[in-house]
Write a structure and sequence with these properties.
The chain has no helices and nine strands. It is mostly beta strands. It has one domain. Strand 4 and strand 5 form a beta hairpin.
Length: 114
Amino acid sequence: MNDAGTLLYATGLNATHCLNVRGDTLDLALPPRFDLKGSSVECVRDSNLFVQQLKTNNLNHLDSQLTLLEKLDGNFDHGGSQEDFHNFRHSADEVYLLWRKGKDELGIVDVEEF
């Protein structure tokens, strides 16, 4: 969710979505990004998004309009992504993001420098 609580971002097997939040009602704010199928999405300061793509483990930096700003290449997971290992949380979530780059690698991303 963005800082204002008006947009909800979701990703999954089919696409990455941006939804308007109006009370208990959700509707599409932007067209879905079918090219960005993800295992996780993180919204950090100023509505910057980080979407980790399925299988490739690429980490995509998007703006609030789902425009790709930058990409870090991950390592391909043969046999699919490990759903149990897609979300790493820690005390400095707004500054650093732990990123599972692939089977045996973990990266640390400074979201202010990305």
